[in-house]
């Protein structure tokens, strides 16, 4: 078992998501930065879809009742005892403490054997929008660890490379025809607002001007959608986004750039770049 001594601002259990239920209104959820969780799992010999912990702005402390192997990836922070992006042995009874990230937002902890909380609809992920899965962690919570099956074969791996002003690749559509032009998306940098969370990254900057009035009937939404509400300011949907929405989607992020968007922190600036001939 792992005991939560301190949870930090937001600590949740996450795997690779709750697939196949969008038609029932159930968000996909899962790790916001899937690449970092997959790396952490590989470092301790787990399958990539095994559940770990997602720490938002760090600050957690965890007591390990039994000896364990862990790996910490994603937003860089201090780990005592241990280090980032490498398998680390934790002795029985030790408390592992996490500092505050120097950049980015989300840090991932994988434990050899995985976090073995009961699955809900096929996933152990916490969904902050729908409330499915385990509740966000708080002090005193105890997390079971599963049986280890894989072997640790990697000593260290390249981790997240912090970006001061990332350029996120997007493809136009499916509702780009609702706007006079998409040129404002690439005209200047956008600033990430404090209202951003696991549902989406809210941006402040050049507004898009509509050429159509009214709203769409609700239609399906995908992770990485750049949805534009009436104020013209884009929202990039992340893991816990609603499955449907009535605001037009001007563009969609390239899948490989979704983890980068998930690591944007309030006050940081980011730019968009069209791909695919737009």
Kindly describe this structure.
The protein has helices at 34-43, 184-187, 258-262, and strands spanning 2-6, 10-14, 52-56, 61-64, 68-74, 79-80, 88-90, 95-98, 106-111, 142-143, 167-172, 190-192, 200-204, 219-220, 225-227, 235-237, 244-245, 249-253, 269-274. It has 278 residues and is mainly β. The protein has two domains: 2-143, no CATH class; 167-274, Beta Barrel (Cyclophilin), CATH 2.40.100.10. The strands form four sheets. Strands 11-18-15-16-13-12-19 form a seven-stranded mixed beta barrel. Strands 6-8-4-1-10 form a five-stranded antiparallel β-sheet, with no helix packed on it. Strand 15 (225-227) and strand 16 (235-237) form a beta hairpin. The model has no long low-confidence stretch (mean pLDDT 95).
Which structural class should the secondary elements be placed in? mainly beta
Strand-residue proportion: 25-35%
Number of helices: 3
**Arrangement of strands in the largest sheet:** 11-18-15-16-13-12-19
As an assembly, this protein is single chain
- What percent of residues adopt helix (DSSP H or I)? under 10%
Reported for the largest beta sheet, the result is: 7 strands, mixed, barrel
What is the residue-averaged pLDDT?
95
Distance between the termini: 51 Å
Q: Whole-number radius of gyration?
A: 19 Å
Per the principal axes of the C-alpha atoms, what is the gross shape?
A: elongated
């Amino acid at each position: 078992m792992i005991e939560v001594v301190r949870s930090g601002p937001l600590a949740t259990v996450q795997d690779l998501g709750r697939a196949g239920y969008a038609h029932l209104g159930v968000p996909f959820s899962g790790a916001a930065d899937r690449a970092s969780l997959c790396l952490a799992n590989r470092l301790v010999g787990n399958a990539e879809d095994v559940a770990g912990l997602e720490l938002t702005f760090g600050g957690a402390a965890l007591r390990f009742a039994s000896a364990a192997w862990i790996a910490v990836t994603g937003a860089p922070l201090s780990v005592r005892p241990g280090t980032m992006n490498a398998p680390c042995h934790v002795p029985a009874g030790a408390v592992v403490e996490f500092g505050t990230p120097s950049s980015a937002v989300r840090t991932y902890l994988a434990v050899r054997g995985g976090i073995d909380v009961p699955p809900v609809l096929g996933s152990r992920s916490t969904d902050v929008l729908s409330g499915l899965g385990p509740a966000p962690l708080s002090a005193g919570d105890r997390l079971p660890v599963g049986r280890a099956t894989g072997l640790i074969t990697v000593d260290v791996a390249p981790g997240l490379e912090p970006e001061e002003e990332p350029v996120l690749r997007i493809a136009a559509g499916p509702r780009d025809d609702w706007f006079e032009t998409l040129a404002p998306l690439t005209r200047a940098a956008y600033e990430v607002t404090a209202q951003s969370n696991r549902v989406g990254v809210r941006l402040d900057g050049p507004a898009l001007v509509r050429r159509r009035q009214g709203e769409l009937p609700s239609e399906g939404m995908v992770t990485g959608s750049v949805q534009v509400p009436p104020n013209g300011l884009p929202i990039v949907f992340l893991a816990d986004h609603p499955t449907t929405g009535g605001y037009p989607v001007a563009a969609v992020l390239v899948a490989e750039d979704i983890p980068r968007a998930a690591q944007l922190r309030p006050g940081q600036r980011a730019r968009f770049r069209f791909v695919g001939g737009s």
